Amino acid sequence: MDVSFILDDLNDKQRDAVAAPLQNTLILAGAGSGKTRVLVHRIAWLMNAYEISPYSLMAVTFTNKSAKEMQSRIEQLVGVPPQGMWVGTFHGLAHRLLRAHWRDAGLKENFQIMDSDDQLRLVKRIMKAFNIDDTRWPPKQVCWFINAQKDEGRRAAHVPDSHDPFSKGMKELYFHYEEATEQGGLLDFGELLLRAHELLLGNPPLLKHYQERFKHVLVDEFQDTNSIQYAWLRILVGQEGSITAVGDDDQSIYGWRGAKIENIHNFTKHFTEVNTIRLEQNYRSTGHILKAANGLISNNEDRLGKELWTDSGSGEPISLYAGFNEQDEARFIIEIIKKWRDKGTDLKEIAILYRSNAQSRVVEECLVREQIAYRIYGGHRFYDRLEIKNALAYARLALDPNDDGAMERVINVPPRGIGERSIGTLREIARDQGFSMWKAAVTIIEQGLLPARASNAIRSFLSLIEGMSVCIQQPDLGLGDVFEQLIQEAGLIPFHEKEKGEKGEARVENLKELVSAASGFNWSSEDEEFSSPLMAFLDKAVLDAGEAQADEYQDSIQLMTLHAAKGLEFPLVFLTGVEENLFPSKMSFEEPGRIEEERRLCYVGITRAMEKLYITYAESRRLYGSESFNSPSRFISEIPTDCIEEVRLRSQVSRPVSMQRPALNRPMNSSLSSLQQPTVSINMGDKVKHPVFGEGLVINSEGQGAQTRVQVNFDDEGSKWLVLAFAKLEVL
Ligand code: ATP
Ligand code: MG
């Protein structure tokens, strides 16, 4: 079979990389040089030229989204989907392994994954149970500590002893935490990796099976692997298999989360006979953009060192804009966006990047005012909402009554007469006896340890959950029906309906949305590790959250943090808030090496741009409620002067005036007038005040007449849909 078509559209070095012999290969190259492209082509090559079954390949990507993209690109290239291949993130793959071998991994069959929010809750609960002072050991810091240990592959028992009371306390908390997660069958993200590593290490036949199965492992964004991920790769590849890793040391931006840039440096030591290939031609950006990136990053020390070049011409210089404040900065950005849009650029080809999430709000307000669609990557997550988490907790309990986290969450939601005191007793017994809360509840009832009323309340909760366990096992019930029943039996709908005003209404709608999400959930045969669709759905809710939100189908401006922009590219990029204290961030001044990481982050930002890059900063900025005056970032002065030019549009500056706001196409006050209420005209972009939720910004509307609903992004409460006719909104 002629397979040379796979090498079309590649340059010589890329071809060398794609068709490299089946041995350990390290592709070390700068941004936009085609690393990800090479990885995809190499998979196609291995399947066709070396006739390796996709079943024997594993590819590790950085996000679930890029995993999907990789699969579809391979399919495009070779015409058939790569069936049986394992593609996913480190967490996703570790999870898959643990589901398949839960017993060998020492897990309960129905173990649950905790997100960072669940984790924090658990830590707080433990601290309460053991009377540990949360001012001396702030729970968030405890989570950081535990996660950092796990990233390094350390269990509580491996943490070195210390005489310092603080460290001692941390270690002790880690022990308690291990005990609680073990008992509840709970796994945090770090545990997925650590446990998957231990699973293989402690089970030689299983390890052998996978080593024989995966003939070749491919890893994208290798520079951001942490110690445990690296260790896992090493044992998986073993002596038999081989690995292709692609990475760029200049783009290592997760050091703060334990990523080890040394993993690239050590690669040739740890893997045998490594074939190292460098790519130097950049296909993404113009000459000016590339020169800026090269100039900036040359200020870092200890680089593996590489220069990127392009033959695409120098293009336009980078434009630098100094806003007099953050509003002016945002206004400038919108102005440029409108120009590009009017010239025919799709909105999705434009990205606005920032250092921290909080910076997006001002830009958002402007976009809304101008009615320009936008998406935020990693914004507020559906599965993070309180009512959704409650409903999911019922499902978790139905699967596994010993899930303490779920039990605590819903034992008295909706209120059923199980007060704090009863719950306290449950906790105590659970802790003293080493029971789950469920078992503690059974004990309390059996031994009559609580007054009759409390005891009865607990009894009826237990039988509610038992009923649910029966419900979820009915084979002919679809997942949507299961959730519908659980929500109904739990009484969540009337509970939220009773809540004051539109808050409850939005919650009820979200619960309905959950039912439809569950009905639409596809349980494919690929998921054979899961014993039930419900379990697969619950895990997906935790693992996929945050990424699912970005709607690929609607044309919209892409807003994201610099971290989230890794691996992506856009014709037009705005790098915003490029000021000292913000970027580099203030926190990075204290720790050695952190400024360099910030510089790499800036390098990532610059190299996302294909045609045109704008860098903006504000002379004064209101952020987190206070005003600061920062000087332009040092990174700006590190860019060679001949590829950047300052633009000044001060004469056009006008502060946004409420009078100028365009009205929505559809008058939103129609429902009000039809109800004979005082007419309040509300437009997109209006700042409004709600008696309960406080101040927020109108960002969307739908429906007509009495059904008109508006979406308001509240400063404190996040975004909510409100029925205009009932919401007592005051326009500010
Ligand atoms: P990053 O470091 O940002 O992850 P990368 O090295 O993975 O970048 P890719 O995303 O694979 O780079 O490629 C950058 C862009 O260049 C893509 O649009 C890709 O399609 C294009 N490209 C890469 N190689 C070639 C080539 N030989 N011919 C044409 N276009 C190419
Ligand atoms: Mg890439």
Structural account:
This protein is an alpha/beta fold and 732 residues long. 43% of the residues lie in helices and 15% in strands. The strands form four sheets. Strands 9, 10, 11, 12, 13, 14, 15 and 16 form an eight-stranded mixed sheet that branches. Helix 5 (116-129) crosses helix 6 (139-151) and helix 6 (139-151) runs parallel beside helix 8. The chain binds adenosine-5'-triphosphate and magnesium ion. Magnesium ion binds at residues 35-36, 567.
Which secondary structure elements does this structure contain, and how are they paired or packed?
Layout: H1 12-18, E1 25-29, H2 35-48, E2 57-60, H3 64-78, E3 86-88, H4 90-100, E4 112-113, H5 116-129, H6 139-151, H7 165-184, E5 186-187, H8 189-201, H9 204-213, E6 216-219, H10 227-237, E7 242-247, H11 262-270, E8 275-279, H12 287-297, E9 318-325, H13 326-342, E10 350-354, H14 360-369, E11 374-376, H15 386-399, H16 404-410, H17 420-433, H18 437-447, H19 452-472, H20 479-490, H21 492-498, H22 501-519, H23 533-543, E12 557-561, E13 570-575, H24 594-606, E14 609-623, E15 626-628, H25 634-637, E16 644-647, H26 670-674, E17 687-690, E18 694-702, E19 709-714, E20 718-723, E21 730-731
Parallel strand pairs: 1-7, 1-8, 2-3, 2-6, 4-5, 6-7, 9-14, 9-16, 10-12, 10-13, 11-12, 13-14
Antiparallel strand pairs: 14-15, 17-18, 17-21, 18-19, 19-20
The chain binds adenosine-5'-triphosphate and magnesium ion (MG).
